[in-house]
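Lab meeting, action items carried over

1. Structure of the two-component assembly. Owner: GW. Status: complete.
Input record:
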Amino acid sequence: MFSKVALIFSCLFLWTSSAWAQQDSMPRTKTLKDVRVRHKETTTKIDSKSIQQVELISGKELLKAACCNLSESFETTPSIDVSFTDAVSGYKQIQLLGLASANTLITRENIPDNRGLAAITGLSLTPGTWISSMQLSKGTGSVVNGFESLAGQLNVEWKKPFDNNRFYFNAYQNSQGRSEVNAIWAKKVTKKISTNLLAHYKNQWAKMDQNKDGFIDQPLGDQWVLSNRWIIFLQRDWEVQVGAKFSKIDNWGGQLNYEKGEDQSNRLHWGYLSNLQRADYWMKIGKVFAATPWKSIGIQMSYVQHDEKNSFGLTAYSASQKSNYVNFIYQTKFKTTDQVVRMGMSWQQDIINETFYQAFQRNEKVLGVFSEATLVFSNAWSLVAGMRLDHHANYGFFTTPRLHVRYAPNPSNTFRFSLGKALRTASLLSEQKAYMASNRSWILHNDAQTSANPYGLRPEVAWNTGLNWNKKMEWDYRPAALSIECYKSIFTQQVVVDIEQYNEVHLYNLQGQSSATALQVQLDYELAHHLDLRLAYKYYDVRIDYQSGTKQKPFIPSNRMFVNVAYQTRNKIKLDATWNWVGSKRVPIAYQSAAYLSPAFAQVAFQISKEYQKKYEWYLGVENALNYMQTSAIILPQSPFDPGFDAAMIWGPLMGRSVYAGVRLQIK
Amino acid sequence: MKKGLLLCCFLVSTLYVLALQTDIKQDTIGVRGNCSMCKERIEEACYVPGVKKATWNARNQTLVVIYKPSKVSLQKIVAQIALAGHDSDSLKASDASYKKLPDCCTYRSKSCPK
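Predicted assembly:
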């Protein structure tokens, strides 16, 4: 299978490059040199100037699909995979380079967000309509933002209060009984003080069971997210930002005839309940020296309080988190502005208390110093080298080296190399919450549980290295971009989640090897004026040494293909179509079912939208147009209190075809 | 799966055929305008079937257009520009089309602040 795909892609490459060579031999006049200027902004592009590989995902890209929240924002971005965690909670998780979302550092305007308990749930707490743009960098990120990001960093920029839009409103409805309303008010109080208020409300009110397993596909209930932030420009170039965000989720689901809050001890109807409250507070103070713009100082602070209570049938899980974070950054130059250094100090504390059959309490305190040099040697060569030294109250001192090198022999070719180390405490229970939607026994193989290290497991330590090549071309006078990326992550320490026995989850320290290899080939081309094509192919090889031997990590497809076509008509009607093919995944053994490879499937989505006078816009779309669903997604759905019941063996879509419509309104 | 491969092959062969063509002409003509809004309007107006690329330069007041003479003529492109309200070397826009331009783009009476 893989060889076939590789063959096709190498053919594609040969053909296209020969076409390119052919065109090059054509006579060209000198005036063409001036024609280089790109007058059209692409919705997603790779910044060829930045030393790290950074994909800029603009707000326009997000408008191409339904995009309700961050976990659903990557339908047209092949770099990120999205899948359901389990068949009852409705949460989706993202994967980058074949690694779970907790390995990607998600930052809100460069302040770490979604850490700890919110690794999965936090994605649904950033509404898509609040986002103005995103920057996705692959491979270990900058040391300035911490030591955790192994697979990459996703920075989310929110809509700014000093934007020209005074009011923004969006309403969304789909055929599966989901309604959403988003609103943003912005006000410039004075010339230097501006504020915005952001609100999001989501309600799932229809009981849907499209895959006919007797379970509600999407939990019922509602979700609120509210935020207010202030940006103040002070004298002498000081800038202050203060913000707060409050989120609340109240969801319930399970068997169709389960009533919310029904007593589970009589084992009548299996139910799912989830209650989440989270408050984020942050403050940023910064100054860029006007006379010496290479010099700046900044301090970032945040405080998070997170509480959640969940029950999956008879299994209860509750957790709370209090985190505080301070990061101080000073930037200056060595000799010239081509040699910039950033250094600083950070403090991070996470107090996490969990109850899952027993109490797990942890208090992680990490104090660290870092330094990062950005050296631009020439137009061709540049690098960023960073180093952190942190002291973790439980693990002691550790270092985090990181290196990014950029080599651009000419403006149309850019090569990048990255190498780095990352460390992270796995928030085991919250990250593997999906397996609570089963009757598996949880078995923790630990050395010693101490108050400092409640799980008794080692932190995850890994190295990641990557090599990529970006080529910009012009075929038939229209721009084309090709990117080939290869990344490898090697874990030296890892908490292995072993579900190779059907009624047990084993959690233990890695004994042996664990690695993730990811290859991506992507081609972007403007087929005709206003007709954009994106083709992508991805290959993953994620293998872990389990107690039962070396195996591919379950539920990760080896192959994935992606085609997106976007067209804009003369009267500004936008049409968008996406074809997403997911190859087979390894599905471990389940009750009365041997381990197997899931069938490959394709998902197709369409959207049409029209904007009027840059004020009103409507959109209409179909998701999963082929109506492909994983049949019998739940093991033993008829007897959910028996040991074999499992709702977390998910490899495919759980929801069928969905038609949606929405409106957007902007007032300047 | 098979459908996808077929689609890929189709797209690739289309690209190949497109790149092989030799029926291409490039012309530089003078076109009046002011700002980035003008640039977008002028270039958009040029993209009729047969036009490969149109790039307008505000400083030189010139438009470089690459097109297939078998499909479209320069007169047709110039007519489209005039219809959008912009004067060119060979054709002046009608007053009716010119009056539709936003205030900033009224290049006959003033230039846009840079």
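2. GW to write a short summary for the group page. Key points so far: The mean pLDDT of chain B is 83. The beta strands of chain B are 25-30, 51-57, 62-67.
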